Amino acid sequence: MQAAAPSLGIDRIGVTTSEPFPELRERLEVHRERGYESGFEEPDLDKRTQPSLLFEEPRSIVAIAVAYPSKLKNPPVSKPGERRGILSRSAWGEDYHRVLDKRLKGLAAWLEERVPELRWLSMVDTGALSDRAVAERAGIGWSGKNCMIMNDEQGSWIYLGEMITNLPLPPDVPIADQCGDCTICIDACPTGALVGPGQLNAQKCISYLTQSKGLLDEETMVKIGNRLYGCDTCQIVCPVNRGIDHRHQAETLPDPEVAKPLLLPLLRMGNRAFKDTFGASSASWRGRKPIQRNALIGLGNFRDEASAGDVAQVLREDPRFELRATAAWALGRIRGEIAEAALTAAAESDADERVRAAAARALAALREPEAGRRGRAAGAREEDPSHRA
Average of pLDDT values for 237-255? Predict the structure, then answer.
């Protein structure tokens, strides 16, 4: 299989046994007790750690990795009146679920030619098993302190998938941890979501928060910066990832206008246009509302007065209270006459109490002395890192 991997579009392949994952089970129990789960996971911890509950008489698990790019070539420039957001690198190209599914089906076909009695069950991300736990035990890479699987060749810029089989394949040897004493990723996490080496509080992780659908608190919105989907900070700062940018997988190559889109057009985008623009990306799975909310957050963090009219229109007309309340917050940071007039009207007459309250808070922030605002907003906007990794 190792020799065939490149012809199958697979960058790394490894095998582990189908035995349970008892250490993972212990970690997941603690994770749940502390309230660190995102809610997107398979809730049954037995299914997450016992392959035999998912597949009859499993003998081995094949893990695969497909590399994706870490840099945008000639990225479009964000400038006044034309501010841009950024998608995480894992969402730059074609939806990785589809990419990995094609690779796993190709691998299954290759195996069936040689072992007709093959039975198999593949998973990518949304399956019950932990992709990272399987990949670590199969020797794809070690588990970094940022909870990412990484190796010296691809770094952590890899999609993971696995296939449970009935074949008694020889297992590979796990790779020894090479993070050493380095804690750069933990120190750089914008929200402190990395609570310890290999320990993530998903409820605080910006990647999770950008995919949530509700209102976000003001501190979180400031830290989101101009991120529309996901967060790459803990990977960008990792020394192992320095200089790694694999671009040989065609489906993973980004369209710069999708990876780093203009924010203002997102505010007016309907469902059809959203699907046409982002439907091929994994960023589309939660629909347009989180992306549009995050676009408002980005405009607020840019404080670009040229966007005030468009943001004010969202506050006046959007039927979703979450977007109106977020628009109010953004206008409080953008300031200016347009922002103040829209906030005054919303604070007095919006149909939703939550929006009225958000508008009132934004008015207070808008009227705060400039010196006080500068002190409160230190480090407010995350620099877009898409060309720096």
Answer: 97
Instruction: Report the number of secondary-structure helices (H) and strands (E) in the chain.
Output: 17, 10
Q: Can you name the residues that pair with 61 across neighbouring β-strands?
A: 16, 164
Q: H or E stretch including 80?
A: none
Q: Where are the domains of the chain?
A: 6-70+93-165, 184-246+257-376
177 is annotated as an active-site residue: no
Q: Which two tokens stand for residue 317?
A: 């007309």
How many angstroms separate the CA atoms of 156 and 132, rounded? 11
Which helix (H) or strand (E) element contains residue 63?
strand 60-67
Q: Which of 46, 95, 101, 125 is catalytic?
A: 125
**Can you tell me the distance from the alpha carbon of 203 to that of 61, in angstroms, rounded to the nearest whole number?**
30
CA 200 to each of CA 35, 58, 185: distance values in angstroms, whole numbers, following the listed order: 11, 30, 12
Residue 4: exposure state from Cβ atoms within 10 A (0-12, 13-18, ≥19) = middle
Task: Kindly report, residue by residue over 48-63, the tens digit of the pLDDT.
Answer: 999 999 999 999 999 9
Q: Which residues pair with 262 in a beta bridge?
A: 84
CATH of domain 184-246+257-376: 1.25.10
pLDDT in tens, 4-52: 999 999 999 999 999 999 999 999 999 999 999 998 889 999 999 999 9
